[in-house]
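Example record used in the benchmark description.
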Amino acid sequence: MRLIRFVPRAIAISLWVLGGLLTIATCFWWVGLNTRLWLKQQWSKVLLWLCGVSVRVHGEPELKGPVLWAVNHVSWLDIFVLNVVRSTTFVAKQEIRRWPLLGWLAAGADTIFIERGFRHAVQRVGHAMQKRFARGQVVGLFPEGTTSEGFDVLSFYGNLFEPGRRIEVTVQPVALTYFYLGQRSAMPAFVGEESLIRNLWRILGANGVSVGLTFLPPVALAGQEKPSRAALAAETREAIRAVVTRGLQAS
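Model output (structure tokens):
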């Protein structure tokens, strides 16, 4: 059964990704920003449907104006799950840029890549984030810097909170919790040295994968004494961790 599910899904997704790349190459350079954001959102909805992954949204996401979404990181699916709610520009590690197909797609979809270990990398990423905020966009940040199995939250790096903090953008914590057959599960997690192909085999060969997306009360920085970036990172982490470690009942 796994093979029967995997093969048609893999073919359909490959064609959908190629279609996305063609759209980026032929349309994105002449259509306006709002159209590009709409296309990215609709494309992500179809991709998750092809993967057999359903999304349940809890809480009240910030849907207008500039906002920084701070999110725990579990899977490559996370990016598309957030895009279903609102088209999002993500900060991602440079290694993703080198992935076949998905890396090219991420680059064309306005992802901000950070090359860790380089002295001025954070500064360059900060400038790129501020440009998106100035256009009223949402930037998605995975402050753990890597993925986990999704049952707890790793330590947050505070550096990339600074661009939003400096210009007093609203910071909204977002908690991701994955389920398989109605139970909390690490099955969709993409961690360690696992290859993308192996992870795809597991997800595309299964039914019953879902993700809970919980939008927590935002941290408004305007009009008050601003916390340090370390304090801001700690506050958002604790808010997310309270949801992740408690878990959510599949609905």
